[in-house]
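Hi, here's the filled form for the chain we discussed.

Project: internal
Contact: R.S.
Residues: 201
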Amino acid sequence: MTALMLYGAVLLMVASVIVNRIGQRRAALAHRRLQTDEGTLRTLEHEVGDRSRALHILRERCAGLDEQLDEARVAVDQLSQKMERAKAAPVERYFVFDRQDPRPGTIWALQVGRSADAPPALPRMETSWKAPRTYLVVAGNQREAMDRVAHRYSRNAGFEVGTATTCHLFGAKQPGKDDPALSGLPAGPGRAGQRRPATAG
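And the returned structure, exactly as it came back:
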């Protein structure tokens, strides 16, 4: 009887150890699965955060593109209005003073017209010089440009040469009144005229 009780106790101990080992293995397996799931969850959280930040950046870019699109539309409207005004504006005609090889210097615009006290000219000249002409000439400074034009269209021949200004078609600024190139230049009807929009004669 005692032997049976001892045998039963040993069997219970062995069964307890086996059950304990099986429970530990299952607990370890569940713990590893839980760690794997936690890692996957953290990875998903990082991906969700990255996607959220990317979505936020894309929304900001879309908002910026919308603003740029509005600005571009406004610019197009302004350019269209400017083009319409340019089409409606009177035509400015320019004459090339001389056709020489390219030379360094500034492109100047000078208005040349018949002076009020000019002697009567041939009908053909009177027809072609009904209105002043604007000539484009390349020169190193303002005085050189005026001297070159005045040499061809002199006061004695009945012409009046206006003041040389840098041509606005080429993006240059007009010189100031205190241009050193004009120092000592005598004042006269052939030198003091201000540039007006040219009309063809």
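Let me know if anything looks off before we file it.
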